[in-house]
DNA sequence: CAAACGTGGCC
DNA sequence: TGGCCAAGTTT
């Protein structure tokens, strides 16, 4: 049952009080009501897209140490930024990150737009990130809706529509709770609650400041929300990756096309990846030896990559193994380790 | 608009 | 161990 307007201030106060006591000390956060640097807010929000805080934190520290301002990042070389992003996943984010930094430097004098609409126009900034930066960095009362907020709303109001169809309704419910008071803290409080208390599984309702008004808690089975539509199955693909070494032990790498899977990243030479195991022409003449296989799971398919090793030459980017390890996406780092071991 | 797009931790 | 899930955006 929806809250009546008179209930909203009490619910807001309960959650903001909880946040004052339990906010997570994340490295991109400020304390004492200090408004954070928009560059750091934006960078953290992009890194946090579909990514856990634990995974993003060391990357955030490395990026801000190396590129302290958006203008520093805008001036960086593409290959440096892509290599620094290696392992964090969703590499389109890194390409858009650079495009965004350069747009801010070139079109906005190195200053981030301070409105949701202005932010939304930037590359890699969608509805969530625009709202989050507007609220956290600029104190705008934006409706910040991520997966956490959706789950909290679905439970608070026991929404009967399954995701993803419920998204518009969950967004409206979240909007009904937004106010001018402490917009950035409100957004982060909702997300912290979702991440630490109103978790997907085994929610900690005993520690929740909102149980008094929570329909899912009242039902006795809060973990039943949000309802979800059945998922489609994940296909398996097969391919070959070649670990080619020259006389000095360097490894042959290629720069992948800008678009598509692992776009713009360094990679090992590979065959196409298809539904069946297939023979594929190697990228160079060598005494190829089988080195086993590695498994890797992407969002929309699982991959079995057969690894073959050999020594030879050719038109590649030749890289020392230690350098390659740090610059490669995880799937190729795994294949490289297999090739070097076997 | 449904599909593409990474990775690692958890149970 | 395999599915689920994490501060989404783009096309």
UniProtKB/TrEMBL annotation:
Gene3D superfamilies: Helix-hairpin-Helix base-excision DNA repair enzymes (C-terminal) (1.10.1670.10), Hypothetical protein, domain 2 (1.10.340.30), Nucleoside Triphosphate Pyrophosphohydrolase (3.90.79.10)
Presence of the UniProt keyword DNA repair in the record: yes
EC number: 3.2.2.31
Signal peptide: none
Coiled coil: none
Pfam families: HHH (PF00633), HhH-GPD (PF00730), NUDIX_4 (PF14815)
Keywords, alphabetical: 4Fe-4S, DNA damage, DNA repair, Glycosidase, Hydrolase, Iron, Iron-sulfur, Metal-binding
Enzyme class at the top of the EC tree: hydrolase
Catalytic activity: Hydrolyzes free adenine bases from 7,8-dihydro-8-oxoguanine:adenine mismatched double-stranded DNA, leaving an apurinic site
GO annotation terms (biological process): base-excision repair; mismatch repair
GO molecular function, one term: adenine/guanine mispair binding
Isomerase found in the keyword field: no
Cofactor: [4Fe-4S] cluster
PROSITE patterns associated with the record: ENDONUCLEASE_III_1, ENDONUCLEASE_III_2
UniProt xrefs under NCBIfam families: mutY
Function: Adenine glycosylase active on G-A mispairs. MutY also corrects error-prone DNA synthesis past GO lesions which are due to the oxidatively damaged form of guanine: 7,8-dihydro-8-oxoguanine (8-oxo-dGTP).
Protein name from the UniProt record: Adenine DNA glycosylase
Provenance organism: Brevundimonas viscosa
């Amino acid at each position: 049952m929806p809250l009546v307007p008179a209930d909203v201030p009490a619910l807001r106060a309960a959650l903001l009080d909880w946040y004052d006591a339990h906010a997570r000390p994340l490295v991109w956060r400020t304390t004492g009501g200090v408004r954070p640097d928009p560059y750091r807010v934006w960078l953290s929000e992009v890194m946090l897209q579909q990514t856990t805080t634990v995974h993003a934190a060391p990357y955030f520290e490395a990026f801000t140490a190396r590129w302290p301002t958006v203008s520093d990042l805008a001036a960086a070389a593409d290959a440096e930024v892509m290599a620094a992003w290696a392992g964090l996943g969703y590499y389109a984010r890194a390409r858009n990150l650079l495009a965004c930094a350069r747009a801010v430097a070139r079109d906005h004098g190195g200053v981030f737009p301070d409105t949701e609409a202005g932010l939304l126009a930037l590359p890699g900034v969608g509805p969530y990130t625009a709202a989050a930066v507007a609220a956290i960095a600029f104190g705008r009362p934006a409706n910040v809706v991520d997966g956490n907020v959706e789950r909290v709303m679905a439970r608070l109001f026991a929404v009967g529509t399954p995701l993803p169809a419920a998204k518009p309704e969950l967004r409206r419910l979240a909007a009904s709770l937004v106010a001018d008071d402490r917009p950035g803290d409100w957004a982060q409080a909702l997300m912290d609650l979702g991440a630490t208390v109103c978790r997907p599984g085994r929610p900690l309702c005993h520690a929740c400041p909102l149980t008094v008004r929570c329909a899912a808690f009242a039902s006795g089975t809060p973990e039943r929300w949000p309802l979800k539509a059945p998922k489609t199955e994940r296909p398996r693909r097969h391919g070959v990756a070649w670990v080619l070494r020259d006389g000095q032990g360097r490894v042959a790498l290629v720069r992948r096309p800008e678009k598509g899977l692992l776009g713009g990243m360094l990679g090992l030479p590979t065959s196409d990846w298809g539904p069946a195991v297939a023979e594929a022409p190697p990228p160079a003449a060598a005494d190829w030896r089988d080195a086993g296989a590695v498994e890797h799971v992407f969002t929309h398919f699982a991959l079995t990559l057969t690894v073959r090793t050999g020594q030879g030459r050719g038109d590649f980017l030749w890289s020392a193994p230690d350098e390659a390890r740090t610059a490669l996406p995880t799937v190729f780092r795994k294949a490289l380790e297999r090739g070097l071991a076997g």
